[in-house]
Structures
1.
Amino acid sequence: MLRRFARDRAALLGGLLILFLLLVAAFAPLLAPFPEDVWQFHTQNRLQPPGADWFFGTDRMGSDVFSRILFGARITLALSLIAVGSAVVIGVPIGLVAGYWDNWVSELLMRIAEIFLAVPQIVLAIAIAQTLGPSIENVILALSITYWPFWARLVYAQTRSMRNEVFVESAVALGASPLRVMVLHILPNIASPIIVRTSIGMGATILTAATLGFLGLGAPPPTPEWGRMIAESREYLPEAWWYALAPGLAIFLTVLGFNLLGDGLRDILDPRTRRSAGAGKAGNG
């Protein structure tokens, strides 16, 4: 698996981008040239262009944009991990239960998930965040509430196709409880699509969180959140072009990294993809 991952250049690039993001978030206080200025005002230095003193220039507060980008990586990564982790914790058990049994509980769970899926996710997240008020905690809650149906629906479909397999029927015949069958037999065999969906979902979560921040529904100022930084830069375009370019580029590279990693993991972990690729090579030969 590691050899296949190393040969997949797109997945390798995505993994390197994510690793870089993790290192930046972990060592932001050491990497930032002006860590103490992230939450402070320095009006004498406001809107300075990129140069030797400020790599990405300064913002309207006079703070170093590069330092704020580094600290913003911490907020973005923590927000996305908590939101996606909460969605997985909620959606996967619901999908397992609904997919394993055929009763009114399964129907009710899936109808609730479909109600959430019927509304565009970004619209529902905006409505929830607007109702709760601007804060990082409310953004996490809004994303968790609107994302869990994606995992529930995925696990539901996978469980439906897996519950009639021979090894599942054998476990049931040997007296295994439904919980044991779901956790020890079905869940490990559907882990691959869950991992792929989680990786791609991280990129979508970061983009949605940035959108909420841009609309003023995310972290309050002067928190170094990438979406809010882009929103604040609108008043100073096009003169202070660096103000919007730096956080926009950070969002682009982060989302690109998770999407490339997710596509690569799908090709590596999905045996049907490997079989079709092998059949294609055999046919060409």
2.
Amino acid sequence: METLPNCPECNSDYTYEDGSLLVCPECAHEWSPFAEAESTDAEKIIRDANGTPLKDGDAVTVIKDLKVKGSSSTLKIGTKVKSIRLVDGDHDIDCKIDGFGAMKLKSEFVKKA
């Protein structure tokens, strides 16, 4: 009998196959067994709003006025951000902005400067 991998979400060992997907009955997470192999082989490429690949240390410019959560101020269009750091997650850019401090931005709201 073939041993199936544990669920990546809840680590349950009761996973089962449903067509080409693996399913966890405890948390209802579905995933492809081939996606795991692809994600470990290829590094995720983060792109700006224009599709240009970004890397650590790049300078970017904000392309849209952004409301800052927990503050009454907004980050204005055209604000230049230097020395970005790419991180995993929904907000994939970690940076420091003069006048605002440390912040996380989404790559879809910036363009490479």
3.
Amino acid sequence: MDKKNIVTFFIFTLLSICAIAQEKLNWVDFADVTFKSEYNALYKANYLVPTFGETIKSYTGKQIKIKGYFLDLSGDGEMLLLSQNPMAACYFCGGSGPESIIEVMFKEKPNFKTDQVIEVVGTLKLNDEDVEHCNYILENASGVLVD
């Protein structure tokens, strides 16, 4: 094999691995969860505690890709979310449930603006214990603007 063919083979191999390494999910996949209200003694309030379904649990620790609306809840980049809905209809505004948001831990602080449609790739973590974080978390994430 000449040098050009080796480089071409290497590039196609890497692209194939990247395509296989991530699963493209949609918001229906994240609806594979039920909630029950439980009292949290530390915060002296009731919180919705998730019970994740087998389908969404099968993606735990895997790299996934999903498209949604970017939300900067804090306004300073401290609490970044991907939402099924724009800010005016998001979970915190009463427009949907906690299964419609994903907390995103970006590798690098993004330049997206609230309500821009983005596609995010990251490692899925399910959270059913820490009420200070969302039930779905994408770690080591990166994103691209779609619209």
4.
Amino acid sequence: MSASRLKFKGEKHKKKRKRDTDDDGRPSSSKRREEDRDPTEWVLPEAPNELRGPTFIIHPSDPTPVSVNFNSTTTRIAVSALDKYRPEGDDEAPAVDVPLLERTPTDVGQVWVTTRVAGSSTINLRSGTGEGKFLSCDAHGIVTADRDARGPQEEWTPVVFPDGMVAFMNVYEKYLGIDEVAGGALTLRGDSEEVGFKERFWVKIQFKYKKEANDEERQKKDGLAAGTKIDEAGANKTFQTWGAGRSVVSQADKKELKRAQKEGRLGEAMLERRAKLKSDRFC
């Protein structure tokens, strides 16, 4: 049975293709497999820089896993139990359980939009529905989503663990976690000193954003490997002249250069002046 999948406005439908070999029967390259992969497929991030774009945050709570949602009507965060899936297009079919890591959002309220803070390792989490409110945490650990603008309290530093789970650290260096309140309801708190079971989340992003992050990382590495191109002419001008990098020329030399330029002998005159400067330097 296929699980229903949330479709975003303007998203084009694309069928996934499984291709293990190329036209000659040889195994296909990893790059080709990436190109064949559905860009909207929900995957787990492997590094903090991959967290971007639509984001689905779930917690393996016992006995029922939950997702971190935003209620646009009340402008409040809702930690809600994950419903069982029904086959797409068949409302009368019995609901089925799906393994937690195969879960995908079925309602736009379950989706947050992750944006990265320029020049920083921190991110912002904005609701994907309503007017777009930012996930925020104050100094007392109270977590809300009612702010239109972003500031330090809306910044989170994601920590990706080897098992793939993610923790979110706020500006006060405390961690986001699931907390049980009166009546057994679950909510979010942001005052945990350490990362334990309550502070670990499964986070899913769309494949195209993960690929985008990896492409950017490769470009940075390629740029560093290539090194910085040295401007030899500029370096010579800076380190082989005096006067803070300016070529100091005498009045007589200036007159000679102007005369040579008029006579079409500028190149020859420049060579003569350089030879003279070199001779004066080592005398």
